[in-house]
Design a protein that fits this description.
Length: 469
């Protein structure tokens, strides 16, 4: 008797139970957002000093409705995705309001998000006198954010909450692209678990819900991940363009991250297992030299951005050490006095720091709690990770591993502040979490998931069937 027809019925109860569990978590988040709405709505619109509130009261609902309309075609016929994205919108509004309150009352308007707002407001005001020259070049990195704020306020008027919500929802679209990338690259994985983590992880919500480069980085890294997921499944023009647009977007926001992505895309594409027959092999032969050339150019641009003008190793090490010293600010410093070799050796733990014994203030304590939960989650899902690592030649697994290694080494070597580390690593965490939620289909069968904890429903169904057959 065939196993698969029986599994078709056996799996359903387990999948339904897991889906109900994740949807219950999303509903609890929604309930919390609704019950606390009088507080966070006030924080969003009225906690920061503004000349007028009218533009925000008009623009914020407009941008939220526009986002919902954009998602409607994506979640049609997918109630679980509708639940996730709806929860994500509410959670993003709460995160943006919390960021505004902390920036205004705790940090006295000294955070970067308020600087972007004031510079953009000045440029919008200067437009009536000097025209388009008010929006000064260069149109990348920090000045890109200044100009975007100026363009928005030129059209809408002074709207600090509107800018926060605009950037926050842009990051939510990035989370959606991460979800689509996971569903495309790992169709046998656990999309509800991954979607819950990618869209609702607290650090991701908070740090990418403010005016700044973090939100746009989430958007374009997610787009890159989705584009390459499509490329790794089936080579096509639209897939290549999507991936290229993502890397180009990251390039104008954070060139050094774009360099890592370019290398992470090129190596697995060139060395990974070919799919799709001889036509894909022929396409790879044509595209690989182009990808290598583009990657080298992106790396050179990133080198100029961080101040590495030559390939001299002494100069590069000195640049890294200078970057490390520049981050040694505030009360969350670490790695002080450690050699470059030690910092690199600690890079595999980048995702799980600060450890409890490294906590020095309240913000670090919150970050440490989430890091501990991530470490616990990683331990519970270790078999899924090991199964994915055994398939390192799979193009998408190779992409994630290459990017994670480059990112971890670079930021462990050049960062000595936990506040900066927790904020910056949200550019890596959504990709790494894919490996803990994935289940790869191989020629020999399907890779196994953990026996306990967050186990895959299909594997429990297999066990039950084999035990009762």
């Amino acid at each position: 008797m065939s196993l698969l027809p029986t599994l078709r019925y056996d799996i359903k109860p387990f999948e339904s139970a897991a889906r109900r569990r994740y949807m219950l978590a999303a509903r609890l988040v929604v309930l919390g957002c609704i019950l606390s709405s009088p507080i966070w709505v006030w924080l969003l619109f009225f906690s920061a000093v503004q000349d007028t509130h009218a533009p925000s009261l008009i623009f914020v609902p407009l941008i939220v409705v526009t986002c919902v309309i954009g998602f409607m075609s994506q979640w049609r016929g997918k109630p679980h995705l509708k639940q996730l994205l709806g929860t994500g919108i509410l959670a993003r509004l709460v995160a943006a309001s919390l960021y505004i309150w902390l920036g205004a009352f705790v940090y006295d308007y000294s955070v970067d998000a308020f600087h972007y707002w004031t510079v953009g407001m000045q440029r919008a005001q200067d437009f009536s006198a000097v025209g388009w020259s008010a929006f000064q070049p260069p149109f990348w990195s920090t000045n890109l954010i200044n100009n975007i704020c100026g363009f928005v306020m030129l059209a809408t008027g002074n709207t600090l909450p509107g800018l926060f919500v605009l950037f926050s929802l842009a990051a939510l679209w990035g989370g959606y692209f991460f979800y689509r990338a996971f569903s495309t690259a790992f169709p046998a994985g656990d999309p509800m678990l991954y979607g819950t983590l990618a869209l609702l992880l607290p650090s991701n919500l908070f740090w990418s819900s403010a005016i700044g480069k973090d939100a746009l980085a989430q958007l374009f890294i997610g787009l890159t991940a989705y584009g390459f997921a499509r490329v790794s499944q089936r080579l096509g023009t639209l897939s290549i363009v999507t991936c290229a647009l993502g890397i180009a977007g990251v390039l104008v926001v954070r060139p050094h991250i774009a360099a890592m992505l370019a290398v992470a895309v090129t190596l697995p594409f060139a060395l990974g297992k070919a799919r799709g027959g001889w036509m894909n092999v022929a396409a790879k032969i044509v595209l690989v030299p182009l990808l290598v050339a583009v990657s080298l150019w992106v790396v050179s641009q990133a080198g100029q951005f961080v101040g590495v003008e030559t390939a001299d190793s002494t100069s590069s090490i000195q640049t890294v050490n200078n970057l490390l010293k520049n981050t040694q600010i505030g009360g969350s410093t670490f790695n002080s006095g450690q050699s470059l070799l030690v910092r690199v050796a600690e890079s595999p733990f980048l995702m799980f720091r600060p450890f409890p014994w490294e906590v020095k203030n309240a913000m670090a304590a919150v970050a440490s709690l989430e890091a501990f939960l991530l470490l616990w989650f990683a331990w519970k899902r270790r078999r899924a990770l090991l199964a994915a690592l055994r398939q390192w030649r799979d193009p998408y697994v190779g992409f994630i591993l290459t990017y994670a290694i480059l990112f971890s080494i670079a930021f462990a070597a050049a960062t000595s502040n936990f506040g900066i580390l927790v904020r910056q690593r949200i550019m890596m965490v959504p990709l790494v979490l894919m490996l803990f939620c994935a289940r790869l289909e191989t020629a020999e069968g399907t890779s196994f998931a953990p026996k306990r904890g967050f186990d895959y429903p299909i594997m429990r169904a297999v066990s039950i069937h084999r035990g009762t057959s």
